[in-house]
Known about the structure:
single chain; 13 strands; 3-stranded mixed sheet; 38% helix; 449 residues; alpha/beta
Amino acid sequence: MPTAPLPQFPAGFRWGVSTSAYQIEGATEAGGRGTSIWDTFARSPGRIADGSTGDVACDHYHRYREDIELLAGLGVSAYRFSVAWPRVQPTGTGPAHSGGLDFYDRLVDELLAHDVDPVATLYHWDLPQPLEDAGGWLTRDTAARFAAYADLVAARLGDRVKLWITLNEPFVHMSLGYGTGLHAPGRALLFDAFPAAHHQLLGHGMAVAALRARSGSPVAIANNYSPVRTIGDTDADRAAAAAYEALHNRLFTDPLLGRGYPEGTVGDPSVVHDGDLAVIAAPIDVLGVNYYNPTGVRAPQAGSPLPFELVPSDGYPRTAFDWPVAPDGLHELLGWLHRTYGDALPPVEITESGCAYDDTPDADGRVHDPERIAYLDGHLRAVRSALDDGVDVRGYFVWSLLDNWEWAEGFTKRFGLVHVDYATRTRTPKSSYAWLRDVVTAARRKPER
Ligand code: FCB
């Protein structure tokens, strides 16, 4: 357990927690919601570790008031949630379905009534199934569909959402959804997945314009980043690390910040039309950074279909996901972004940071998670170190408020500050919740002068 108090954070630093729609809402038939690619994928045998689906998840759709009480009790200034596209447009096209938007309207009002800023992600991987049937993100038209959906959401919520996030982790969606097939929609195209990168980025740029037209609030994207560490010291190892860095960290950042695609990342060049790069480079106000762990990379074995080999990071404690607990990687990453993009880098907010442990209630019903407290303590200190180095970091969102449905891992990975009993959906704040509440309360009371 950490004992030293955390260093101070700047006045106005945003303290938040994150969730996403499919992972917590459940109620997949309520309010006329359409089917998403995750409904289809989760219902396909063998795709999810425990055979579960998000049909009920945390039942947040019905229990959102209780969850907002938990947010208010935590004292955070912001809540990052995602809007389920199939609730707003059940088929992915056409007018807004009011039943769906009504839910988010109530959610946003309830957040504001509790003094919590709504931060809305428009796309956290739940594409309406009919759009996937028409080609999904491999199809250019999906970018225009996404912008039309963004317009509908902003028309309804644009006066109250305090920060917009267009896409969540387009890298993970491209690589696991379209590259390896471990996530929905389950396509395994390897490097032929490039159109899913380009069309997500194009959709982002078009959505930025739609959001600006309807709302004065700042606009961001939430990218997944992993600092790349070269394992070995041959030229081939360094080339492999550079190739992986281009794919994971630069493919979804260079074009956003006006640099075009990194060398070697464009698959079929005919996918990129004249003018697309200007649309993608529309200025954003904040870069959302989701960080979980670093990646070791070396040259591939002969005959590998990939230009790199990923190597597990040694020497760190590990989470229940077997991910290394590496706060130094967050410090390293923020320094890399600062050095690599210089003045082109907008202010950064950590839009996800968190860990899974096998948390279970003790005999008294309490849930103790000292590992999560140590994790958060370490990562907050890493952010403070980056601030000291001159990186403009404006906020930190913990993943996640609740234990929830963790994609291909189903209910087997618990990331919450609040424990959820999946038999009863009972919420029990863990000891990390109390720890973070004290940190946030102290930070918001004593701003740095
Ligand atoms: C991120 C996702 C989020 C959650 C965490 C653990 O990649 O954005 O939904 O699954 O990982």
